Amino acid sequence: MSVNEAVATTLADVLSELGDIAASRVRLSPAPGTATAEDCLAVNETEPKALCELVDGTLVEKAMGYESSVVAATILFLLKKFVVPQNLGLISGADGFFRLVSSTRGPDVAFVNRQRLPNGRFPEHAHPQLAPNLVVEVLSPGNTRAEMARKRREYFDAGVEMIWMVDCRNRSVAIYTSATNYVVVGELEAIDGGTVLPGFRCGVGEFFTDLDIGVDRENE
């Protein structure tokens, strides 16, 4: 079911289909249900401070926050240190968007194996039509459970192999290998790249190191 279908007759219907998100995140121009991939590209090029994803023909501003941004940057750094020396592929950040089957999404961090690159070359389109192998989403206060569940379905339907849902509040990571199958690893445990990034291994606590600046956790 999508916003474009006749059942979505009110704003409440639209917000429900988008994952019970806040109305303040929905762009009204172009009108919900009528936006295109070109509209998404245009708004992200002209208004980079308010990154938008395209969902059911509707431009939806990404939920963002400083804490989640810092953690995402750390994860990007850790993954890049592993990927680049081995020439495994590309690592992108939150403004790296992908055209999926039914939406255009900008994961907080993503890894694309070089074998998925079109003709083995860097994509020419600003929003390439391909699915990353690994997606990392760092939860922000504005994200809802329904929204993230929808994102997971879309990612796996498009061909994503693994998703890390990072929870800064609980300092844990939910590792999804399908839209519903997952395990949770905590701050004192390690996370690995599985079959997507064989050989990658890192302590989950390293994702959150910067959050402890100025805090003496031993005396807490």
Fold topology:
Layout: H1 11-17, H2 37-46, E1 52-55, E2 58-61, H3 66-83, E3 89-92, E4 98-99, E5 103-105, E6 109-113, E7 134-138, H4 145-158, E8 162-167, E9 172-176, E10 182-186, E11 190-193, E12 197-203
Parallel strand pairs: 7-8
Antiparallel strand pairs: 1-2, 1-5, 3-6, 4-5, 6-7, 8-9, 9-10, 11-12
Can you describe what's shown?
This protein has 220 residues and is an alpha+beta fold. The protein contains 4 helices and 12 strands. The strands form 3 sheets. A 6-stranded mixed β-sheet has the order 3-6-7-8-9-10, sandwiched between helices. It has a 4-stranded antiparallel β-sheet with strand order 2-1-5-4, with helices on one face. The termini are far apart. The N terminus is likely disordered.
Key traits:
single chain, about 220 residues, alpha+beta, six-stranded mixed sheet, four-stranded antiparallel sheet, 4 helices
SS field, number of helical segments: 4
**Proportion of beta-strand residues:** 15-25%
Report the average pLDDT across residues. Answer: 92
Number of strands: 12
What's the story with the biggest beta sheet?
6 strands, mixed
The backbone outline, from C-alpha atoms, is globular
Strand order of the largest sheet: 3-6-7-8-9-10
Poorly predicted ranges (pLDDT <50, ≥5 residues)?
1-6
Helix proportion range: 10-25%
Radius of gyration, taken over Cα atoms and rounded to an integer in Å: 18 Å
N-to-C SSE string, H for helix and E for strand: HHEEHEEEEEHEEEEE
Structural class: alpha+beta
Termini separation comes to: 48 Å
